[in-house]
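User: Second chain of the day. Same drill as before.
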Amino acid sequence: MPVVNRQPPNMPKIYYVYILASQRRVLYIGMTSNIEQRVFQNKTHAFAGFTAKYNVTNLVYFERHGSVLTAIRREKEMKAWRREEKKLS
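Assistant: Same format as last time:
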């Protein structure tokens, strides 16, 4: 899939921290600057890896961040959560 940048060139870049889930409730937390493309890649198993192996394809949560550093910090914070703190019900 070609990379599509939908942001006008003069707009600040936006980064996303997101949670994907499988039907069996396996969770994946990640960070990207193009959430539409990343979700598509996970749904189509474009890359071999955790999300393809466990069929983690459903976007259940995301946050926007204006800085890559704050997005990375938040991703690490969320990955450190215990499963109970990641409730999806």
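The chain has three helices and three strands.

User: Great, on to the next one.
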